[in-house]
Amino acid sequence: MRSRVVEARSFEGRIAIGGGLEHFSTWGMSKRKRPVSTGPSQDLSEHEKTVYDLIRSKRDMGIRSVDLRRDTKLFPNPNVVDKALKALLAKNLIKQVKTVQYRGSKHYMATEFEPSAEVTGGAWYNEGVLDTAFIDLLKERCLIHISSLKVATVDMISDAIKRSKIFHAECSSQQIGEILRTLVLDNEILEVKSTGLGEFTCIPIGRVCFKLARKPGSAKEPKAYAMASIPCGVCPRIEYCSPDGIIKPSTCEYYNKFLDF
Amino acid sequence: MAIRAGKQNLVQAFTAKDPGGHGDAVKQTTEYIALFDNIIHRTRFPKFIIVVSQELEKGCVELFEGLLQHGRLTLEKLIDRAKSGKHIQENSNIENAVRENLSKLVHAHFVERCPAIEPVLAPPSEDELAAKKRASRSLKIAAGPDIVQRVLEAAAPMESKRFLFMSDENCIDSEKAEASFVDVGEKRKHSLLASDSDLGIKEEVLWRANYEEFLRRFRHKACVENVRERLDDGAAIALSSMLEAGRRLESKLKTETSVSVSINAIYEEAMKAEVGRSMTLDDLRDYLTLLECQKGADESYSIDLKSILELAQNEEVESIVLKKYGKDSYRIFRLLSKEGHLVETDKISDTAFVDKKEAPKILYKLWKDEYVYMQKVTVMGNRQSQFVLWKVNKATLWKNVENDMYHAALNLSLRVAHEMEQGKELLSLPVEKRVGTLGEKVNRLRRIRLVLEESLSKLDDAIMLFHVF
């Protein structure tokens, strides 16, 4: 299993979530550091100061290099901007961040700020890309605990994950809830309300809880229903198909494959 | 041709009255409407026969097959049909057997009295005419669902007569029948065969298969299977028992809620099946609660069938989306389907855990194929921002899916016919020559036919889910 550290945002501040058994970075850091009061501007040239002030004004949103050139009105001299950026990076006054919207272009931010969720994509993004490996890992753990508990609330699953100590840092109940929501959309689990009877005995009546959508041991994928089981049901060319047309059932390639036993 | 089609229950004749203008005599013309659903039901005859064979004995099945073949028959014709090819000494036994079997079929509601051959349809009222003119000023409406419904209602026998079978006579006295009719302002014409005029006017009762009963059972079965898939066998047994107990009381096919039935009646029904015998009354109560049944006075229960069928329809369409577009699209589609309202792109991406760059591409593809509806909204603030919102428009999508299902059903039929045509020579080989390579080819052809026909049968169940239920 690949280990990775993901920096994420939550109500408590930054959370580091370790994926796997490797060590991870600390947590509990505040949202942004207090801005440095003594002016670095004394050490900066005029161009560097202009660029730095503009970048700093964008706070936790940062700015793309394209927009930077336009806004600083130094556009006729793109080299000047590039030189200023290089100097500021070297002095550690600004940093480059990966954004979810503009992955191809360079995005700058003052060092004292942490990128907002709008820039990074949110808690589940790592360097501008959705961290599907970590999400899949969390989904898998949730399914294991639901399978063992038979029926469980968000809090029960969240507690079970904490107790398992698979992850070094905690995922909030809200985050577990988001994972469970996506498992419902995957049709892996069902969201039901406790009746207080039978398998719901331990859960207060009316409380939202989750159970596996399919019986253990059954097929992993959701069942293919009537239309999805035949070539025509998923054919991208069905609107062009007719009994005597160029695309027709008697010569259809998809049917040939379907009947190729 | 029209009369033959009428006998096969594919068209319904009616007498239309045209009041004419002032001073003009009332004109009466015979018109016909095609019963398209009945045309399609003919492909379901094998399913109907299976249902009858599961409940009644062989004699009933043979009688029923005769009615399907000929469309409508009198008791006399049924007896003649049964007698043909048999020894004359067996005739009285055959006659009794036919009466008994027909009685069983009628009692089970598999067979019903035929509707009136040519009911008289009263002209529409002035209000109805005005409404129709407003609605169809530029449209030519030949026979909309409205007139079809009116004709069928006018032709239908009274509910008390529909399943009335008198075993000791094959006709009813029309005077008695007239007296028992509810006066609805329309005169019903009765068929056909007048018997000996010395005995007064008599009508022979025509019998036909009651499609509605089979469709009702298929509808119930679809609900039960959906529950079994989603919940478990116990819940399925509870639902099945509840529907069985109330089936006779359902007044129409597409009831939104099942008939309210007492817990004791449901329990009694559950005990009839072997699988239900281990269930206690408390178990049954728990299952009915799990099914979210509505509990009435005196501990009677009913269930929202419409919701179950909607879930089944959703699953059918979601299955197509998964197979055609993949898991991310499936999650997005299910999200929009559950939300039921417009949702913004980023919100979709966040909730469905689809990368923000990928979500718009997926949504665009679904939109192009008319699985989702798109709306752009511009918000004026300090800066003008444009948002793209999406939702599943079920009414449009369900119609498209239904059309595709009919198209697919046609394609399956054509492919079966094509494969059988291609393999005609192989299939005509005598059994002793079907060895080696030839034998393998024959087996392959059989397997192809089986797969295609099974697919068609399953698809037909899905068509009923969208069109009939």
TrEMBL record, chain A:
GO cellular component assignments: cytoplasm; nucleoplasm; RNA polymerase III complex
One example of a Gene Ontology biological process annotation: transcription by RNA polymerase III
Name of this protein: DNA-directed RNA polymerase III subunit RPC6
Source species: Punica granatum
Family membership: Belongs to the eukaryotic RPC34/RPC39 RNA polymerase subunit family.
Keyword Nucleotidyltransferase: no
Location(s), subcellular: Nucleus
Presence of the UniProt keyword Transcription in the record: yes
Keywords: DNA-directed RNA polymerase, Nucleus, Transcription
TrEMBL record, chain B:
GO cellular component, one term: RNA polymerase III complex
The entry's keywords: DNA-directed RNA polymerase, Nucleus, Transcription
GO molecular function, one term: single-stranded DNA binding
Pfam families linked: RNA_pol_Rpc82, WHD_POLR3C
Chief localisation class: nucleus
Positions of the RNA polymerase III Rpc82 C -terminal domain: 101-309
Entry's localization field: Nucleus
Domain spans labelled DNA-directed RNA polymerase III subunit RPC3 winged-helix: 317-379
InterPro entries named among the record's database cross-references: POLR3C_WHD, RNA_pol_III_Rpc82_C, RPC3, WH-like_DNA-bd_sf
GO BP field: DNA-templated transcription
Entry function: DNA-dependent RNA polymerase catalyzes the transcription of DNA into RNA using the four ribonucleoside triphosphates as substrates. Specific core component of RNA polymerase III which synthesizes small RNAs, such as 5S rRNA and tRNAs.
Oligomer status and interactors: Component of the RNA polymerase III (Pol III) complex consisting of 17 subunits.
Family, per entry: Belongs to the eukaryotic RPC3/POLR3C RNA polymerase subunit family.
Descriptive protein name: DNA-directed RNA polymerase III subunit RPC3
Protein's organism: Punica granatum
